[in-house]
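Take a look at this chain, tokens included, and explain the fold to me:
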Amino acid sequence: MPVLTANPAHNGNLVSPSHPDVATAVAPAPATRFSRPRFALLVLLGVYPLITVLLHLVLPLTEGWAIWQRTLVIAPLMVTIMVWGLIPAVQKHFRSFLNPVQR
């Protein structure tokens, strides 16, 4: 996108350096605001099936273990999948839902 500058010869209108005779008005982008409740809902919808699958995979392999030991196995898996998979995917695919235009 070309850089627009104010040119006194064009009554303060913004003009493109590549086309100095053409005045170009640039509309400001609408203001958006990140919605934490929407983000929390989407992460919950992703975390629930993820933890369910992890529990089904890990519990049969850890029969007889104390709960803290099972948690010690599941927590790093869960965090890794969330940080490098789930959260970036939610932010990418639901960008407009998470950042609604302010009114």
Observations:
- The longest strand covers residues 19-23.
- The mean pLDDT is 85.
- The beta strands are 5-6, 14-16, 19-23.
